[in-house]
Amino acid sequence: MNPVTIRLLNQQLIASQFSDPAEVVSYMGAMQAQEYRMMRWAVAMRTRKPSHKAFKKAFDEGRIIRLHLMRGTWQLVSAQDYWPLIELFSPKAIAVTKGWMSSNRITIPDEEQIRVMDILAQAASDKGSVTKEDFVQALAEKDIRMDDHRLSYHIRMAEMTGVLCSGDLLPMKATYALTADKIKSSTRMDRDESLMYFTHKYFQSRQPATLEDFVWWSGLNISDCRKGIELLGDFIHLEKWKCMDFYLTDDCRTRGFRKGRFLLIPPYDEYLIGYKSRDIVLPAEHTHRAHNNSGIFQPIIAYDGIICGNWAPFKKDCQVEFFSGEYSAEEVMEAWKTYHSLRSQ
C-alpha cells in the first residue's frame, strides 16, 4: 500500500473525477472552511477545471453551504447533506461551543438566546443575505447591544440549530441567510443511517485513514465512530502499514497517479486537517511549518504528496519557501498560474 498516492487520488487532488464544485463538497462530506477566501481554492483545486465563478454560483444558489458545525469550526457542506449533518453533529458541536463559552466566562440565558435568535432570523428573512453588521443594527433597533464575541456565539448557536446558514458569497466578508429560505427539506435519516452515510463519506475521501483520524475529524465519540465503521460491514476493510491499522473502502481509487506534480494547498485543507496523525505526508521535523499547537494552519506546498514548503496565496507574484528538497520557484509556476488565474475571475 502506498498511502500518499491513495490519499491524493481519493482526496481528488490528482486526476479529479468532478467538474461541479458542489459535487466535490458532497463527495468529501464536509470540508474545513476556516479561511473565507481560501475555501474556494480548496474546492476548486479538486475539480477538473478549477473555477471560482463555478464555486460562487454553487454557493449563491445554496448548493454549497458554509456554517459552524463539526468540532465547533467552519465547514462547507452540500445542501442535500445539510439536514442529516445538523441532526448528527449539532448536539456535540453545541456542547463543545458551550464549553468554550464557559471557559471564556460567557453565560447566555435561554430567554436571551431565544429572543436574539428570533431577531437574527427576522433580519435574515427580511434582507435575504445579511452581514454581522446587519445583525448589530437589527439588535440595536430592539435596544440590544453586545460585544462581538457574544454576538458570534449567538450566531453559532443559530447555525448549529439549523436556523441560519451562509448567504451570498462576498469577496471578503461572510454573510448569513435564513436556512428555511435557502435549503429545501430533505428525506430524514435515522441516526444509524446518518452515521453509516457519513462514515462512508469520510473514508471514501480520506482513505487510508485510522479510527483515531475519524474520531478527530468528526468530533463524535469513539463509540459512535466504531459503530459507523461496523455499519459499513464488508464494504470497508483494514490494512496494516508500518504497524498501524488503516481503513480502506472497496471502491478505493488506486490508479491515476502522475509523478512530478506540485500542489499549492491552502491553510486548513482536508489534506492535513482531515487526520489526527499527519506524519504520512508531513515529516515530523517540519510540522511547525504547516501548523502550530493552537490550531493555526499555514499554506503549504506538496510535491508528489509530501509537504515540502510554504507559499503566499495573497501576493501578486509567486513567493515560495522550501524547507525540504532541492526545488525552485520556477518548478511550481504551473500550479501558481492556475491558482493566480482563478484569483482574477
Features:
345 residues, alpha+beta, 2 domains, three-stranded antiparallel sheet, 11 strands, 14% strand, globular
- On the 0 to 100 scale, the average pLDDT is 94
Shape: globular
Radius of gyration equals: 20 Å
Question: What is the total tally of β strands?
Answer: 11
Strand content: 5-15%
- Summing up helix and strand content along with how strands pair, one would put the structural category as alpha+beta
What does this structure look like?
- The chain contains 15 helices and eleven strands.
- The protein is an alpha+beta fold and 345 residues long.
- The strands form four sheets. Strands 8-9-10-11 form a four-stranded antiparallel sheet.
- The longest helix is centred in the N-terminal third of the chain and has 25 residues, at 79-103.
- The chain is globular.
- It starts with a helix and ends with a helix.
Brief rundown of the structure:
The protein is of the alpha+beta class.
SSE order and pairing:
Blueprint: H1 3-10, H2 21-28, E1 31-32, H3 39-44, H4 52-60, E2 64-68, E3 74-78, H5 79-103, H6 110-127, H7 132-140, H8 148-160, E4 164-166, E5 176-178, H9 179-182, H10 191-206, H11 211-218, H12 222-232, E6 236-241, E7 244-249, E8 262-265, H13 270-273, H14 287-290, E9 300-303, E10 306-311, E11 320-322, H15 333-343
Antiparallel strand pairs: 1-3, 2-3, 4-5, 6-7, 8-9, 9-10, 10-11
Helix pairs in contact: 5-8, 5-10, 6-7, 6-8, 10-12
